[in-house]
Specification:
Jelly Rolls, Legume lectin domain-containing protein, Leguminous_Lectin, Legume_lectin_dom
């Protein structure tokens, strides 16, 4: 017959438990410590998960690129760059989907991304390129059409249209080098924000601190930042400068009020697309960093490891779910709480 469990006071701030022939004494302090450790550990894990996703590619690798490549997309053997086009369209997506909206509140996360790219037609100066995009899409299997579609969308029933398609759930920033009148392009050298359509909700001629930047002039760095709390997106670009690598402009090129939670699902894929027109144009991405969080954009640090075009070869960095130093601070706080309880 199982003996009943007896519970009696043990000292001034504890209790004694008896089960069978065994008797245990727990102090109140020990109990409090155990509860605090449990609560703090739960908080640490919650914050760690909430940190979102962070990854950086200083260069790309054929062995384990961490990317899903569609169409023309490939990794260059010589320069270890992500080549998006050959003579058609290509798309490259980070292999793991990213949390973009909170499952319960449906609020948007914040993110920042930066990358170095180039659009080069030097192999055939008569070739026509279209440009490339940074995109946020719901799947990693769809490839958009070449030409004015930028590898981003496909024409509906073979027709060209700028009518937004809510089912597309696609957000993109286009770096467009061809004026396509069917999509109301402002010129043949512009940056625009696209939502479910190639008719940009806002676009400007490519420039950096009021100086025009030719998108086909060489290596260019772009920054895209979205604050989920302020519901605001900004885009900046700058060309490579021999004396200062890629100086970030003092003022963004584009600043747009937009609530992405209205256009994206809970999990989305991020990456790039590009397309050629006639002939061969190389659209390349040389390095790429991305970070997301459910906090404000102001909490971000600089995650822009983009060496100059002539810099040494660098390995691909590993993906991380949260910042190591943040968890270090949380664990240090947990230790202080435990020691404080034991002191009493």
């Amino acid at each position: 017959m199982e003996m009943p469990v007896e519970r009696r006071q043990c000292g001034s701030n504890g209790f004694r438990k008896r089960a069978g022939s065994h008797e245990y004494c727990f102090s109140g302090n020990a109990t409090a410590v155990m509860w605090l450790m449990f609560i703090a550990f739960s908080v640490v894990m919650r914050i760690a998960v909430a940190q979102g996703t962070m990854f950086s590619f200083l260069q790309f690798s054929n062995y384990d690129s961490g990317l899903t490549l569609l169409g023309d997309a490939s990794i260059g053997q010589e320069d270890l760059a992500l080549q998006l086009t050959q003579n058609n369209s290509g798309r490259a997506l980070y292999r793991t989907p990213i949390l973009f909206t909170d499952g319960s509140s449906h609020a948007s996360i914040s993110f920042q991304t930066s990358f170095v790219f180039s659009v080069d037609s030097s192999t055939d100066p008569s070739s026509m390129g279209e440009g490339l995009t940074f995109l946020i899409v719901p799947d990693n299997t769809t490839l958009g059409s070449p030409g004015p579609w930028l590898g981003l969308f496909n024409p509906i029933n073979g027709s060209s249209t700028a009518t937004p398609n809510p089912l597309a759930q696609t957000v993109a920033v286009e770096f467009d080098i061809h004026k396509d009148i069917e999509f109301w392009d402002i010129n043949d050298n512009h940056v625009g924000i696209d939502i479910n359509s190639l008719d940009s909700i806002f676009a400007k001629e490519a420039s950096s601190d009021m100086q025009v930047v030719n998108l086909t002039s060489g290596h260019i760095k772009a920054w895209i930042e979205y604050d989920g709390q302020a519901r605001k997106m900004s885009v900046s670009i700058t060309p490579f400068v021999a004396t200062n690598d890629y100086p970030k402009p003092a003022q963004p090129l584009l600043v747009v009020d937009v609530d992405l939670s209205s256009y994206v699902s809970e999990y989305m894929f991020v990456g790039f697309s590009a397309a050629t027109g006639s002939g061969v144009v190389n659209h390349k991405v040389y390095s790429w960093s991305f970070e997301s969080t459910d906090s404000s954009l102001s909490d971000f640090e600089d995650i822009s490891p983009t060496p100059s075009p002539s810099g040494p070869a660098q390995p691909v960095s590993q993906a991380s779910l949260f910042r190591a130093h943040d968890c270090g601070r949380l664990l240090a706080l947990l230790l202080v709480l435990v020691l404080s309880c034991l002191a009493f």
